[in-house]
Write a structure and sequence with these properties.
Blueprint (H helix, E strand, L loop, with lengths): L2 E4 L2 E4 L5 E7 L3 H12 L4 E5 L5 H6 L1 H18 L15 H25 L3 E4 L2 E5 L2 E4 L6 E8 L3 E3 L12 E2 L1 H4 L8 E5 L3 H13 L2 E5 L11 H13 L3 E3 L2 E8 L5 E7 L2 E7 L1 E4 L3 E3 L13 E2 L2 E2 L12 E3 L10 H15 L14 E3 L4 E6 L2 H6 L4 E7 L4 H6 L5 E7 L5 E8 L6 H9 L4 H5 L10 H9 L8
C-alpha cells in the first residue's frame, strides 16, 4: 500500500493519522492557532470550508480597507486644487476599484496558503462537524479526523432584521456591499457601528447620498462620547445624513426598485427613499451544524462560552476568535489562537486583558482607541487626568490638509499611569500601537510625554496629549 505525505505527516493508505491539534476554521484565529501549534512541535491540521483567511481577509477588514483606500484617492483628487493640481474630466469606475480589492485579497490568501505549507500544516477543505470530543467528520473526506485537541475558529455571521429580509439586491449585507460595481445614488445604512460608518465613508466619497441610522444615542456606541460627536460633525459636514436614537419600521419597494423606509426618531417619523439598504446591525457566532451539543460545548447569547485559556465546556475543545463573542477583531482572534495553542502544548500563557486591546475604525476621519473612557472611569470611581491635543496644532496634519480631530489621553490621577487613549483624525490607527505598548509596560503619562518624538509627525500629538494631563503641553 502506498503511503502519502500530507503537509509534513504521513497518511498510510486511507487511514488518517491522529493529530495533536485540529483547527476548524482558517481565519486569523484559526491559522494563527495552527501555525503556533506547529511551531511548538504538534502535528496540526486545519479544516476550512471555503478559502483560507476567513471573513476578515476575504469579505471583511482587508477588502474593505482596499476599497476605503480607493475612496481616499477619490477624495484627494476632489480637493486637488488645494495642492495646486488641476484635474479636469475625472471619472470613477467602482467596478475597477472592486477588482483591485479582490486582487489584494487573492495575494494575501496565497500568503496564508504558503504559511500552512511552510509550517507543515495539512489543510482539509470541507464542512466539519464534531462527532466526538476527539473526532471530526468532514463532508469531503471518507475518514474522520481524530485529534487530541480541537480548536473551533469558525467566526461569525451577520445578524438579520426581521423587517428587512435580505434579498441581496435592494436589501444587502456588507458582503454584497463589497462587490457592488454600480454606485447607488442613494443608500441607507442601518447600524452606526464600525462597519456602518466605514461604508458611509466609502459610498459618500464616491458621491452617493448616504443616510446612516443608529438605534442608540450616538454613532459608534462603544466609543468615547466626544469622539462619537466629532465623527458626527465630520460626517454631516461631508453631507452624510446621520440619524441617531432612531428606529426603522419596514419598507416598501417601488416599481423602479427604490426602497422607501420609515424612520422614527422620538415622536416624529419620516420616510426616506434609497436604492440600497445596507443592514449592518451586528453578528452572531457561526455555530450551525458543528455538533456542539454532542460534545458538551455550551453556547450563551449566540457565542461559544470559553474561559481565559480559550477552553470551552467540552473536554479538549477550545474556541477562539469571533465565534467566542466581542471584541470581534482580527488581532484579538490571532492572540486567542496563539494562547490556545500554547495552553494545549502545556505552557502557561498570559491571559488577555481585553480592555487594553487597541481597536480602530477606518472611517474618514479615522478613529482609534484603547482602555477606559472618561465615563467608564467615572462609573468605576477612578479619578483621571485628561490631556488633549488637537490635530489643528500639528504641523504634519496641516501639511497633509487633514487636521480635523484630536487625541485624548487619560491617566490615573494617583499613580499617573496611562489608562486609555481615544483619537479621531488622520492615520490615528497607526498611532494607537504606541499607547498599547505604554499600557502594557505600565508607563506613566510623563514617560510618554518626555519621550522625544520626531518632528514633524502625527505621533508628536501623543507626546503633547500626555504632557497635557499635567497641564504642560507645549504646542497647545
Amino acid at each position: 500500500m502506498l503511503n502519502k505525505v500530507l503537509g509534513g505527516f504521513e497518511v498510510k493508505g486511507n487511514i488518517m493519522p491522529v493529530l495533536d491539534v485540529a483547527v476548524i476554521g482558517g481565519g486569523p484565529g484559526g491559522y494563527a492557532a495552527a501555525i503556533r501549534a506547529a511551531q511548538l512541535g504538534m502535528k496540526t491540521g486545519l479544516i476550512e470550508s471555503t478559502q483560507l483567511g476567513g471573513l476578515c481577509l476575504n469579505w471583511g477588514c482587508v477588502p474593505s480597507k482596499a476599497l476605503l483606500r480607493n475612496a481616499q484617492v477619490v477624495s484627494m483628487i476632489g480637493k486637488s486644487k488645494e495642492f495646486g493640481i488641476n484635474v479636469n474630466g475625472m471619472s470613477v469606475d467602482l467596478g475597477a476599484g472592486v477588482q483591485r480589492s479582490r486582487r489584494v485579497v487573492s495575494r494575501l490568501v496565497k500568503g496564508v496558503e504558503f504559511l500552512m505549507e511552510k509550517n507543515g500544516i495539512e489543510v482539509f477543505h470541507g464542512m466539519a462537524r464534531l462527532v466526538k470530543k476527539d473526532e471530526i467528520s468532514v463532508d469531503s473526506l471518507t475518514e474522520n479526523i481524530k485529534a487530541n485537541a480541537i480548536i473551533l475558529a469558525t467566526g461569525a455571521k451577520n445578524l438579520l432584521l426581521n423587517d428587512f429580509p435580505m434579498d441581496h439586491d435592494a436589501i444587502i449585507s456588507s458582503r454584497e456591499a463589497l462587490e457592488l460595481k454600480k454606485l447607488p445614488q442613494k443608500i441607507m445604512i442601518i447600524g452606526g457601528g464600525p462597519i456602518g460608518v466605514e461604508f458611509a465613508t466609502y459610498f459618500s466619497s464616491y458621491g452617493s447620498e448616504v443616510t446612516i441610522v443608529e438605534m442608540l444615542e450616538q454613532l459608534l456606541p462603544n466609543e468615547d462620547g466626544e469622539i462619537a460627536s466629532a465623527l458626527r460633525r465630520s460626517f454631516e459636514k461631508d453631507g452624510i445624513n446621520v440619524m441617531t436614537d432612531a428606529q426603522v419600521h419596514g419598507f416598501e419597494q417601488g416599481d423602479n426598485g427604490a426602497v422607501s423606509v420609515e424612520v422614527i426618531t422620538g415622536s416624529s417619523s419620516r420616510v426616506i427613499e434609497a436604492d440600497k439598504i445596507l443592514v449592518a446591525v451586528g453578528f452572531a457566532g457561526q455555530t450551525d451544524s458543528l455538533g456542539l451539543d454532542d460534545v458538551g460545548v455550551d453556547v450563551q447569547d449566540r457565542w461559544i462560552k470559553v474561559n481565559g485559556n480559550m477552553q470551552t465546556t467540552g473536554s479538549g475543545v477550545y474556541a477562539v476568535g469571533d465565534v467566542t463573542g466581542p471584541p470581534l477583531l482580527a488581532h484579538v482572534a490571532e492572540a486567542q489562537g496563539i494562547l490556545a495553542a500554547e495552553h494545549i502544548a502545556g505552557m502557561d500563557p498570559t491571559q488577555l486583558e481585553y480592555e487594553n486591546i487597541p481597536r480602530a475604525v477606518y472611517s474618514r476621519p479615522q478613529i482609534a482607541s484603547i482602555g477606559v473612557t472618561e465615563s467608564e472611569a467615572k462609573n468605576r470611581g477612578i479619578n483621571v487626568n485628561v490631556g488633549q491635543f488637537p490635530y489643528r496644532a500639528s504641523g504634519k496634519a496641516i501639511a497633509m490638509a487633514e487636521y480635523d480631530g484630536f487625541i485624548k489621553i487619560l491617566s490615573d490621577a494617583e499613580n499617573e499611569k496611562i489608562l486609555g487613549a481615544h483619537m479621531i483624525g488622520p492615520d490615528c490607527s497607526e498611532l494607537i500601537g504606541e499607547i498599547s505598548l505604554a499600557i502594557k509596560l505600565g508607563a506613566t503619562a510623563l514617560d510618554l510625554g518626555s519621550s522625544i518624538h520626531p518632528h514633524p509627525t502625527l505621533s508628536e500629538g501623543l507626546m503633547d496629549a500626555a504632557l497635557g494631563t499635567y497641564g504642560n503641553a507645549i504646542h497647545v
